[in-house]
Design a protein that fits this description.
The chain is α+β, with helices and mostly antiparallel strands. The chain has one domain. Helices cover 40% and strands 22% of the residues. It contains four helices and four strands, in the order H-H-E-E-H-E-E-H. The strands form two sheets. Strands 1-2 form a two-stranded antiparallel sheet. Strand 3 and strand 4 form a beta hairpin. Helix 1 packs antiparallel against helix 2. The two termini are 24 Å apart.
């Protein structure tokens, strides 16, 4: 997936909150690594790559941990909520207002 495809996919399924994290990952992407998929799982932003690059994998783990503190919809401070048996990282506003669920 290129950066535009990744951004469009996350924007469609989550919102704009994690877009700065995606931008950061693509800036740090080593030339020998290709991102195969970008997705939300268990409330975290995740990346699959075509090859194992230990240093980059550790960086992706930090991004994943960071995403667990950022609302996936708006980018404000977030926490994990279970909604319809799915775990999402949301700010209180997006959880309480149900704005997230009206997409």
């Amino acid at each position: 997936m290129n950066k535009i495809e990744s951004i469009n996919w996350i924007r469609k399924v989550c919102g704009n909150g994690w877009l700065p994290l995606i931008e950061s990952v693509y800036k740090q992407l080593p030339p020998d690594v290709t991102i195969i998929s970008v997705y939300q799982k268990w409330g975290a932003l995740r990346f699959d790559t075509d090859v194992e690059n230990e240093i980059f994998q550790k960086y992706l783990e930090k991004i994943e941990q960071n995403s667990l503190t950022i609302c996936e919809v708006c980018g404000e401070s977030g926490t994990e909520y279970t909604v319809n048996n799915w775990i999402h990282t949301l700010c209180k506003h997006h959880f309480d207002s149900k704005v997230f669920f009206e997409k």
